[in-house]
Amino acid sequence: MRRTSIATAVLAGSALLVSGCSGDADEPVSSGAVTPSSTSGAAPAPAGDPQAGGAYLQVEPGSASTQPVIATKSKGGSSFTLTAVRRIGPDRVVVEGLASRSQPNAFNEQGYFGAEHPIDGGGHFGGLSLKRSGDTSTYLPVRSQDRTCQCTVFHPELEKPGTPEPVYVVMSAPAGAGPVTVTVDAVGTFSNVPIS
User: Fold this and answer.
1) Which residues, in sequence order, are CB contacts of 26 under 8 Å at separation 6+?
2) CATH class assigned to 50-193
3) Which of 188, 174, 195, 152 has its CA nearest to residue 71?
4) What is the DSSP letter of 151?
5) Which residues of the chain have pLDDT under 50?
């Protein structure tokens, strides 16, 4: 009788363990909390935003090195070549390009005291803002609930300062079409940038 009880308990535990590994881990968990990503006028998170409990947002930037160049800015040994600003949701865009850093944290968001360095000694491509003519809002990088930038994270062992690297950042953005101004804190401002 005792062996039967132990075997039943082991089987029940195994079934629970296997059901937890069924491949359904891609289903987002809705928490209801959304981190604002604009200084004013931020729209609620779209249904496809993981913060809203929708499908996961998967940004797969194209190969920035083969995209047309919009413009390049340099300052203090760092440079950024802007290759695209693409609409990925009603109030989201992805900014893509090639960054060459003078130091590990050259493109970090300045004055932000959140989860800046998810990897010790690394940095992230989060020091950007976006504006549109006639709109008083400043749009910022999207952050997850743990305040991590939804952007390229530089791993100190893989990416070295001075090497051009493909980068992206998901930004909140005004709805609709029209050119925007993208400011990259480390290198300067890109004006009249089309959203594709």
Assistant:
1) 56
2) mainly beta
3) 188
4) B
5) 2-64, 111-120
